[in-house]
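Form 7-S
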Amino acid sequence: MQILRKALRLRGFFVDFITLHYKQVLKAMKKLLFLFALISPVFCLAQKKNTGPKVFDLVIGTYTGTTPTSSKGIYIYRFYAERGEVAYLSEIETANPSYLAISQNQQYIYAVNENNEITASSVTAFKFNKNSGKIEQLNSQPSVGSPAYIAVDKAQKNVFIANYGGGSLQVFPINKDGSLGASTQTITDKGSGPDQMRQAQPHVHSAMLTPDEKYLITTDLGTDKINIYRYHASKIPPLTPATIPFISTAGGSGPRHNDFAPNGKFMYNIQEMAASITAYAYNDGELKELQTVKMMPDDFKGVNGAADIHVSPDGKYLYATNRGTANQIVVYAIDQLTGKLTFVERYKTGGENPRNFIIDPTGNYLLVGTTNRVNIFKVDKPTGRLALTRNVINMESAVCLKMTPVE
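Output:
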């Protein structure tokens, strides 16, 4: 009986304690629920921020006029960025689509049709369905030179092409249906460079808009110049020389392509003939040289042919290709404060003539086009280093790769 009385007293104590503190406990629970309601959207936003697109359409332009070649034009593949795998979707025949651009709304693809005979070259607009991968031609416009590069503005007002043959820059307006109108502006460069075999005349090799799209920057391999134009999307003509209309690279270097760091503060130019890379500080249409690095070691005795250059999506690393007898991808770390480059490693591309490559938007994989295949490298994000995977696209003369999200 004594044990029973003690148990009853203990029970009564707990009942009194819970009764006494019930309101305090209830008040604390309400505070916790209110706090959770406040922070849960933050967690949701964080989740959304980290769950970007993982599936993309890979658009590949090829050379169709080389012998022998089985390539017919533009090819569409589905790319899975978590696994680095690809699946064929579709293709369309078109002559030598050696460089491509995809519109901001992802509904149109624009391609140059490069031809060694300047009067036979053109630029073509295609309608694109990113869900099915279907592509169909809209129209073509003639170019005044042999084009090697194409870009489109985010507002989808104009397309820009760099004519390597003929040394000119052209602007084509975009119609409401995505097709191209007749050229509204042609700017022809003048001059030459010290290498009379390669630089007897201008060779405009690329045309890239700045991140804010206030300026268009072109590279002229033939005159060793980087030209800068103020861009007014709705005006005709839309381009006028910038306050500082050009800067010069080293004589005989042959500037080819540019890329910007994601923060827009630094631009990097690759020079084909010298196989060198120059880092620039960028501010409102003005470039200030920071550093020039050689892509190959001093004892390299082979043939250079530097081609393409891209900064990783996180802005930490820069990658560049060198053709000739090197056939390599060179990796540099980017100093986040100064923009300067530090050499990391060189890798064989697993094929010859690596003209163009792309880093997928997630930063997980690097895809490089070579003479007879597209090789896929896994990117180690903390170190920037590459590892060749077994995933490959067997394709001849893949010379331009672009990606657009499916999701």
